[in-house]
Specification:
By secondary structure, the chain is mainly alpha-helical. The protein folds into two domains: 382 residues, no CATH class; 131 residues, no CATH class. The chain has 27 helices and six strands. A four-stranded mixed β-sheet has the order 1-4-6-5. The protein has a two-stranded antiparallel ribbon with strand order 2-3. The radius of gyration is 26 Å and the shape is globular. The relative contact order is 0.09. About 1% of the residues have low confidence.
Length: 697
């Protein structure tokens, strides 16, 4: 019956109403209801609370793979999204009907029924109220002005509310009996944790989200982007599916996709892993604290790398039943999400496939006659996996004619990867010092918990965790030490190696969960003073880790992560309005991001008409302009763009160059004064928040 109601609602919304609000409700219910049905087929031995997230995960993975296949074969049009939405209900229903629990069926969730004490209900209500207050403070702190850190706009009340939530959650999770209530509150806490960028910066922040949203709009309008590239498509088709099937605007579907999925799926996956490694289920809820030691800020803004990382982080706890209890998930349950991660981003997808292959290469899983590939030694998989990403970049460099290896300066690059302890000093700032140290110590605490959980973990769990973490670490070291990234701007050259360090931590997740479960068991026998102190530290760590997770601009760190401001958007609009013909613009990445939203893709050959912040000649010219604004530099930008365009250019000759100076740029007043002397004309935007200079040729 729920499925039929959802199907009717989908048809009404798709055919006539086209309401984004109703579409969001439909999409959430769609994933939950039919995900639960798929989960019954994927994990029939589990409790419904533990299998619905696996079904939703598999459902979304299948959608991405089918959509990606259609995209590469031809395109992903609107009628295909509607067809998939109509096919999901019967397919999910048939999968549910065909499911059969095995003889080894167990229930890792259920406990003796009991009445929830009023004190527990009061504690849960207090946690929910505190999280709601923290979220409301974030919403009320929204700004369209450029700030170097979101915390510059957020009132301190948000941290007080988060600390109160941490205290209530610590009390509830240490009790460990009301598991469903615990995991739902964990979802609310994770959602608040990852809500900072999109609540505080309604116009957006960073650069990558804007370029992906622009690409998703093209996929929605045309079904594909030419030339077709072997990455990002998994995310693009999923956003296009949500837009076509549920009338969600592209920007909204993209913005909320990753934060919502992380908040909904991660806590349930985490609790499932904890219940499978815990000898006493009462200690499983305490492991939810481990979620906040992870770099959750990576799930705050939807990007292909972040979405693929989430798929890996779900794959690791999903493997715990097989590793800890010797269960036998089928190859589909292993490789479907791994292939989906590959369709999203190869840097995360290739490791996901390796981990799935490692899990599948177990001779005990199925008879050898049915799976000869299971006899492949796991050592071969680990060995190949340890060098796979550097080899992939080497092949890509060979195809493009770029140098593949750069061993010079390897030690300096490796040293730059090592996290350095924060420097704090007089005058002492208790909260700031605690927050800075808590953020730095989160990784160390994760490693310590993993080591602590080693003793209570079985050999298969130990080997799988170390194998995956080791592969990611070796890949990261090789990418930093010998792989040539000289085509990127200097501060971006360790970017790919940096991306693998969180993946190495993700691989240790089962051991860290086991460590938290073991710590909880030991804590129950500790003196009351020790228990109270431990819970107080855990409660205080939650707002501290929240603060440390995002770009800071405080007494110890100068922030440079400026958001897209109203002045950036207005500057782009006025430039586009005043331009008399084809032009290029030299500007900071926030202005380039605003141009992607306001104008879209416009290229001269392979050169975007605003600088791309990850490097390239146009960005170097922008930096030259900041050092000394001149007509010669502006003309060099126009000539460069025309050269990239070739003999024939659909936009015609470039006769105008615009130069944008934001007021937060270092030495902005002096730059503005010099630019006024060389430009043909100029104008200020939003009372001088930005200045725009026009050079005509």
């Amino acid at each position: 019956m729920p499925g039929l109601l959802l199907l009717a609602g989908f048809l009404v919304n798709a055919a006539a109403w086209r309401s984004p609000g109703f579409g969001l409700i439909l999409a959430a219910a769609f994933v939950f209801v039919f995900g639960a049905q798929v989960g019954r087929a994927v994990a029939p031995d589990e409790h419904p609370v533990l299998r619905w997230w696996q079904g939703a995960w598999m459902l979304l993975s299948a959608l991405m793979l089918v959509g990606a296949a259609a995209y590469y074969l031809h395109s992903f049009p609107d009628w295909l999204a509607w067809t998939l939405a109509l096919l999901i209900p019967p397919v999910a229903f048939l999968a549910m009907k065909r499911s059969r629990p095995s003889l080894l069926a167990h229930d890792a969730w259920s406990d003796a029924p009991h009445r929830i004490p009023p004190a527990v209900l009061a504690c849960a209500s207090g946690a929910l109220l505190a999280l709601a207050i923290a979220f409301r403070v974030l919403v009320d702190s929204a700004t369209v002005e450029a700030v170097a850190s979101p915390w510059r706009a957020v009132a301190p009340a948000a941290f007080a509310a988060m600390a109160a939530a941490g205290a209530f959650l610590a009390a509830l999770w240490s009790r460990g009996r009301e598991r469903l209530l615990s995991v739902v509150l964990a979802s609310a806490a994770v959602f608040t944790f990852v809500s900072v960028p999109w609540t505080v910066f309604p116009l957006g922040t960073g650069f990558d989200p804007f370029i992906h949203q622009a690409a998703e709009r093209l996929v929605v309008e045309h079904g594909a982007i030419e030339p077709k590239q072997p990455y990002y498509v998994g995310q693009y088709v999923l956003v296009a599916f949500l837009h076509h099937a549920f009338a969600l605007p592209v920007e909204a579907a993209d913005r909320f996709l990753l934060p919502l999925l992380a908040a909904l799926l991660l806590p349930f996956a985490w609790m499932g892993a904890a219940l499978h490694v815990a000898k006493d289920r009462r200690h499983a809820a305490f492991a939810l604290f481990g979620l906040f030691l992870l770099p959750l800020a990576g799930f705050a803004i939807t990007t292909p790398q972040g979405l693929a990382n989430l798929w890996i982080l779900l794959l690791v706890p999903a493997a715990v039943p097989a590793l800890a209890r010797d269960e036998r998930p089928g190859p589909l349950a292993l490789f479907l999400p791994a292939l989906a991660a590959l369709a999203i981003h190869p840097v995360a997808g290739l490791p996901a496939l390796l981990f799935a292959a490692y899990l599948a290469a177990d001779p005990r899983r199925v008879p050898r006659l049915k799976a000869a590939w299971a006899a492949v030694p796991r050592g071969v998989i680990v060995g190949v996996g340890a060098v796979l990403l550097p080899l992939a970049f080497a092949v890509l460099a060979w195809q493009t004619g770029q140098p593949a290896f750069q061993p010079d300066g390897a030690l300096a690059r490796l040293a730059a990867l090592v996290p350095r302890p924060p420097v704090v000093g007089f005058p002492f700032r208790p909260f700031l010092d605690f927050a800075v140290w808590a953020g730095w110590l989160a990784g160390a605490a994760w490693l310590a918990l993993s080591a602590y959980g080693w003793r209570t973990s079985g050999r298969p769990l130990r080997l799988a965790s170390l194998a995956f973490a080791g592969m990611m670490l070796v890949n990261g070291v090789l990418l930093a030490a010998v792989t040539d990234f000289s085509f990127l701007i200097d501060y971006e050259r360790l970017n790919y190696a940096d991306r693998l360090l969180p993946l190495a931590l993700f691989g240790l997740a089962p051991l860290a969960v086991a460590g938290l479960v073991r710590f909880s068991a030991r804590l129950t026998h500790a003196p009351a003073a020790v228990r109270i102190l431990t819970l107080a530290v855990a409660a205080a760590a939650l707002p501290a880790l929240w603060y440390a997770a995002y770009p800071r601009d405080d007494a110890y760190q100068k922030g440079h992560g400026y958001n897209v401001s109203a002045a950036n958007v207005e500057a782009v609009r006025l430039i586009e309005q005043r331009a008399e013909g084809p032009y290029v613009a030299l500007a900071h990445q926030s202005v380039s991001a605003a141009a992607l939203t306001g104008v879209g893709f416009r290229y001269y050959g392979d050169q975007f008409f605003y600088p791309i912040p990850t490097g390239g000649h146009m960005y170097a010219l922008f930096l030259d302009m900041n050092a000394d604004p001149s007509r010669e530099t502006a003309w060099a930008a126009a000539a460069w763009a025309e050269e990239r365009c070739g003999d024939w250019c659909e936009y015609g000759r470039i006769r105008e160059v615009y130069y944008v100076v934001d007021d937060y740029w270092w030495d902005a007043p002096a730059i503005v004064a010099r630019a006024k002397e060389t430009a043909d004309e100029w104008f200020a935007v939003r009372d001088g928040r930005a200045h725009v200079f026009r050079y005509a040729f």
